[in-house]
Amino acid sequence: MHWHWLIVIYLFLGGLGAGTYLTSFAAEKGWLGKSSSLTRMGYYLAPPIVTIGTVLLVFDLGQGLTKPWLLIGLIMNPRSVMTWGVYILALFIVVGLIKAYFTFKNKATPNIVTITGAVLALATCAYTGLLLTVIKAVPFWATGIMPVLFVVSAISTGLSLTSLLAILAEKERFTEGREGQAHILLIGAELIIVAVFVGIMFFGVNGPVGKESVELVVTGAYSLVFWGYFIGLGLLFPLFVFIYQHRKSKQSAVNETLSAASEIAATVQKKHHSFLTIVSDISVIIGGFALRALIILAAIPVWDGFTIY
After folding, report:
1. Residue of 212, 192, 185 lying closest to 201 (CA atoms)
2. What is the pTM of this model?
């Protein structure tokens, strides 16, 4: 395959940046609770992260440094998914910068700007998966599940990165909203989507080459990355932590009404949970990167029915 680490990083950063924007958008709309402190950080993160990813994509095309004028062709083919992506990414970066400016200045952003940014962020998440789906010569990619998987993973990793940096930026002002519940829903959805995807490939729906790719991931050369970094560290560990925290926070809320002693204990427990949250967020981000690496590196192309090694 000609697609290697630069594409892995690009796909990761594109989804991550878009996910941070959607996180702050959700927080601003109150979907993460009224006490969420994530209403600003995601807007600051989105434009530079997506810009870096886009630059890496240009370099990977092989003309970024030697013949940059040839890249004009990227915007001249409206039937190409890559052309769609150029417009989506460019517009999202511009709108994201405008939104970040208004946020930094503590000015009310025109609603059309905020909504447009959210739509473009969602399109960016989906595009990173759609870019792979249309490549029919790689059965491992040629499934409509791919964009859905990338959207959910992008929002999940974006939520984690926004939470991590918001803790540092807001410091004592940082308060938690419904981020834990959002993580549970996102990770649960991602596990289901991955299970469906693996099942489709294992049962040969996309042919023997697609099955060979998934065998590389699940039982072959990349199995340690799949089960260890992606499933174990990136999904199951944070899922258990967030479920544990959610149950404890509900119990603490009940205990706080019973006695002052239990209120002190709940405060101590909350600090402990904050450390677990940081570790879990880092794990989610590692898992998101591992997912992109697995999808790209385990893909086996076909040509006229013959496998190319």
Report:
1. 212
2. 0.87
Output the six-digit token pair for 265. Answer: 């204990």
Q: What is the CA 258 to chain-centroid distance, rounded? A: 41
Give the H or E element holding residue 306: strand 306-307
Six-digit token string for 122: 């969602």
Give the tokens for residue 216. 């590389």
Structure confidence by residue, pLDDT tens digits, 258-297: 554 444 444 444 444 478 888 999 999 999 999 999 999 9
Spatial separation of the C-alpha atoms in residues 32 and 283, rounded to whole Å: 21
Helix (H, G, I), strand (E, B) or coil at 303: strand
The single-letter DSSP state of residue 1 is: -
302, containing H or E segment = strand 302-303
As a whole number of angstroms, the longest Cα–Cα distance in the chain is 73
**Cβ pair 45, 20 in contact under 8 A:** yes
5-307 folds as Formate dehydrogenase/DMSO reductase fold (1.20.1630)
**Does residue 294 contact residue 5 with C-beta atoms inside 8 Å?**
no
